[in-house]
Amino acid sequence: MERGFWLNAHYDPVANLRTFSTCLHTCDLYGDGDWRLAVAGLDKKLKVWKGTQLASEHALLDIPCAITSFYADAQSPRIPALAVAVGPNVFIYRNLRPYFKFTLPLDVVSEVEKTIWQQVYTGSLTVAQARSSLLKLSRNGPGSVAPSTVARELEGLDEASQEAEIEELSHQFKGEPPLQQSVITCMTTIKKAYDEEDAVSCLVIGTESSQVLVLTPTANQATHIWQLNHVPAFICVSGLLDVEHRLAIASRHGKVILMKNGAVTATIPLDALPLGIARSHRGFVIGCTNSTVQCYSFKGRRTFCINLPSPILAMHGLETPQQRIAKCLVVSLANGEVRVYNDQHLVSITPLESPVNALTFGKFGREENTLIGVTRTGGLDIKMLPRAAKLEGSRATGPPPEQDIPLDIPKRTAVYVEQTEREKANAVDMHTTFQQELVKLRLATAKAYLQVLTDGQGATSASPGALSLNATVTGLGPAFKLTLELCNSGSESILDAALVLRYDQQIYTAQLDQMLLPVLLPSLKYCFDFRIRCVDPTAGVGNIKVLLHSSKSPIPLLVAVVKMPLSEMEEE
To answer: Residue 138 gets which letter from DSSP?
Structure first.
């Protein structure tokens, strides 16, 4: 493992960029071999860098969600088209000039929803009943009849506004369901017939209405429309559209949908929500909110999982055409590190002054292998991969070297021989005694565990989800700071929870011994600080019991005991 093998090419701390990895892309915009950087930012602007200088800036109609480039035809010279996804539209640029706009088709409304709107208009269904039916239709979740965009938007209004909106729309559209356009959530490209760098490609688009569209090479209409049960957030493509292709679609619901030639082959549930997806020579890798990177094959089998020391901010695939190396992975962490992995092997760690929020890897200028990142402070950081860089990682196999070291075995003594003979003669009695003691131990353990579940004592959780609590005590005394890190690892949110501290008041006192907590969302970490003061340092050390209560259960959700350190004497 090397530390920081990237070469610093350029850093602009005042570039003022606010974007994501999906809106960062490099391409040969003019076909002259000089690759440029295109950034679609949250400030509704498309910025293009040539080298280290900002070459041009173009206004966008709304906040973009994705940007990519593709070759629409086989004409020479080979000039790619730049596609920017904004709302329900994909704006196509040629030579950085507006060329074409593709707009998503209108929503397809189910027969159930059509019947509801017709009954409201004719008066056979009241507005209140229609509101209840539409909300039930939108809350049925994945796998049910897909609601329209209007039905999903009703959830964000109060009851009076919902009924007024339904009544107004029913008269406006005269019993017909109000149709709206969906919006684009993600976008990528797929090669059509040949696996070459400048081969003709097609756009693959994911929409808010849980659809995946494949457009023609000219991006004027959709040739394939696949309806899913989940809203796609990230798309990974492998293969050729006209031969055989596979798609891995990471959704907002924590699911990964695998497709082969347009048919869903498997659905993989994830441990946490996805943050990004990238290709691997074994399949694809997914970064999750629980600080893990998981690798799956396109058949749905998980090959490995990497636990990272900090949450993931951005990730991107890394592939060098000069080496016989399969696709690596670049990961940016919240602690400011940029790591490179080849499968589960760590190749490089590069610490940076500011964490990187967006990443892309590819050609830039005349350089083949360039890593471009946008920092949290809005800076532009460009690094180059050395041509002599080793990306294989540590792949040592076989037994550990300690196996070849002979053990220091003592010589057999007379006592050892006598003990061995005694064990041979009484083997049955010794085994019977051991089994009896083992059964007694299991019985005592079961009784103790039952007692813990009954009275809520001990470090156990009675919540519907899995809760974890880490306590850290800092300070020499008599003043201490108790930091509690709480994480809800379950699938449900926890409401109306409170932390309570119990301690010996003759030894300790706290500024705040109870605290009402916000909603504990799944897979998120919460930190809470308590100020503890030792009023009697001569009394020795004591314990502080931490209880997590909920208004829905008389038994504490979580109980833990924190052993306090010995307090220093307070100087007069």
So the answer is: H
